[in-house]
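re: that chain from earlier
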Amino acid sequence: MFIHYIKDMRSWILFFIGAIGFINLILWLDQGITVEFTSALYFNILIVISFIVFLIWRYRVETKFIKELVTLIEAGIEDWHIALPEPTFSQDEVTRIILGKAADNFSRELAEIKKVNIYEGDYIASWVHEVKTPLTAMKLTIDEHRGEPAFRKIESEWLRLHLLVDQQLSISRLASLEADYVIEKINLKKLAAAEVRELASWCMNKNIAVEFEGENVEVVTDVKWCRFMIRQFLTNAVKYSPVGGTIIIYMNIKPSGNTSLLIKDEGPGIKPHDLPRIFDKGFTGGMGRIHNTATGLGLYLAQMVAAKMGITLIAKSENDKGTTMEIVFPAENEFDQVVREREMSSE
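^ sequence. v structure.
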């Protein structure tokens, strides 16, 4: 900050240097004034030292307000505009007033945006719940006529619509995820099997087999949100698997003590340059463009949920060798810490 202050004061510094130079020039040219060289040198050194001391003093005084302001903002205090430091000079007072007014305007606009978002979220949630009623009726009708080929085709379209509606409901709830935790110990195979049953008709249409391998392990997690993440990975695995392919769901406990769930498909895989971006919002990749059904939201939402729950998502893939998506759960004590941090941040 001192360097910036010197740059701001360069006109004053140049004026001082010019004034000293002008005085020395007069003393040297004016024959009527006799000054010893040592005296002139002593005078110049004394003036320069005095000016340096004065400059340092002014720096400390004039930047006091800015330093306190920077410290306040860097502290990350939410209501920083209320704790603005006391001004030292009139320009500091003007800055304080401007910052206060800007913060007030920003708070009002933010409150309006939040209010609109709440209304929209409530409307979407209400709409989704209303849509689920006819979807349930349609499902009952489909189950009654499951043997008819036409209804099997309708069921696949029903499943697609059901997944989209369920995803939209999850999006509307995502903002309040911290307040929606229900932590319990659950068998991981049981969680994955429930999602496989949801997609059973789709798997049968494509003649896709789902195999469970690995250990019979339990995790401490939120069942609903954990199933949401598994659903995103399993849906992609079914979507991109070839007809007659196999999806392997593997569960184990890693050497670090973390429980892991892997979903491996036999699809075309993900290109190396696409792999680092698959969790980005709106990114569909090459295969998403080919199938023309990808929204670019599924994996992005799964990553958001995982980040809030302290879960790590890992993607591994090679061209024409399938894709492996891994969900790494935190150890039980680590998850408890994540939950406590989320609860404290929401208070």
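The CA atoms of residues 341 and 347 lie 10 Å apart.
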